[in-house]
Design brief:
Length: 359
């Protein structure tokens, strides 16, 4: 645990004071990791508005927790009934308690019963807002993750060829990820030919044919942080139809990169890309949001979506992924990872957008 994690907890405590929350229970591994830097399969980070946070875990992690967590009290979980009594004693003065929206019913109901005098409130928005603005060190890791993703795709394109099935290409992807000692950040989307019209197609036995397209949506994990990138590649000589759709999607992608800046609403960034696609008559074929935040998880908040009014701040990291999907015809998505800067954005994805492989 370092000073950055303590600063994150302090930021959480300030947000709790603003929301009049007396305590927050953080059970999810991803949030425990974000605020402490410690990876454990079991645990609870209990943060009060003031004072030292408490990290509860079982005997498996007590030693590493005591060794790693400076500025946090470490306690061992007790039997359920005794543990809830401990919470109740601590909560005598609590009036409002925050919980994660992902808390299970089995976790939430005993807490609610033990702390029945307090009001419970979903703290997801508070937590997501804090995690949404990345620190300089987080952004540097995300740069490395995006670079690893670029390098991986370059390697894959030397191997993929017509005649391979989607599942075969998926196996190659996973082999090369393992060879690099990293992990995938999500199941890769590999769409051969007309399968590219399915936004989130699951790889199957479909064969990549010569004179056809291959849509690849892929990401890796580096030091716990995700990358995400999509390219739509053509094997052979691109048809006029493919080139038309690809050019429109690329225009939308590049317009966002040119115009996005802090102070804009996320929904207005979505509109930049959507209006270009509508202008060419394909608005009905762009059915998903423009993008999402990326960090410890592949989908975080805020998002470039029509209903997201979050104001962009420097340090936010989001995808720019417009697409057009025409059933039975052609599907194209182009996705880059962007960091919002003081004046615009930094593009973390450096793979060329137009990739044609002779066959």
């Amino acid at each position: 645990m370092n000073q950055e994690h303590l600063k994150r907890i302090e930021k959480l405590q300030r947000a709790m004071a603003a929301a009049d929350l007396d305590a927050v229970f953080l059970y999810s591994e991803i949030n425990r990791t974000y605020f402490t830097g410690l990876h454990t399969s079991n645990g609870l980070l209990l943060v009060e508005r003031q004072g030292m946070p408490i990290f509860y875990t079982d005997f498996r992690y007590i030693e590493v927790a005591n060794r790693s967590l400076q500025g946090i009290e470490v306690r061992t979980f007790k039997a359920a009934a005794e543990q809830n009594k401990e919470y109740a004693t601590m909560a005598a003065a609590w009036k409002k308690i925050g919980y994660e929206g992902s808390l299970t019913v089995a976790q939430f109901l005993p807490l609610q019963e033990a702390l029945s005098n307090a009001k419970w409130e979903n703290a997801n928005t508070i937590i997501a807002t804090i995690r949404g603005v990345k620190s300089a060190s987080e952004i540097e890791i995300l740069r490395r993750s995006a670079a690893a993703n670029d390098e991986l795709l370059a390697d894959l394109l030397k191997t993929f060829r017509p005649g391979m099935s989607e599942v075969e290409m998926q196996r190659i992807f996973r082999t090369k990820v393992a060879e690099r000692g990293i992990q995938e950040s999500f199941e890769p989307i590999l769409c051969a030919g007309v399968n590219a019209v399915e936004c989130h197609h699951h790889p199957d036995d479909s064969i990549l044919q010569p004179e056809s397209e291959l849509l690849i949506d892929m990401g890796v994990l580096v030091d716990g942080y995700c990358s995400d990138m999509t390219r739509t590649i053509y094997y052979g000589t691109p048809t006029p139809r493919f080139k038309e759709i690809h050019d429109i999607v690329l225009e939308a992608n590049q317009a966002v990169i040119a115009q996005v800046k802090p102070g804009m609403r996320c929904c207005d960034v979505d509109t930049i890309a959507r209006d270009i696609i509508k202008k060419y008559g394909y608005g009905d074929y762009f059915g998903h949001s423009l993008g999402h935040s990326v960090g410890l998880e592949i989908h975080e908040m805020p998002a470039f979506g029509q209903n997201c009014t979050t104001i962009l701040e420097p340090g936010m990291v989001l995808t720019d992924e417009p697409g057009i999907y025409i059933s039975g015809d052609v599907g194209v998505r182009i996705e880059d990872l962007l960091v919002i800067t003081e004046t615009g954005c930094e593009v973390l994805s450096h793979t060329p957008h137009e990739i044609v492989i002779p066959c």
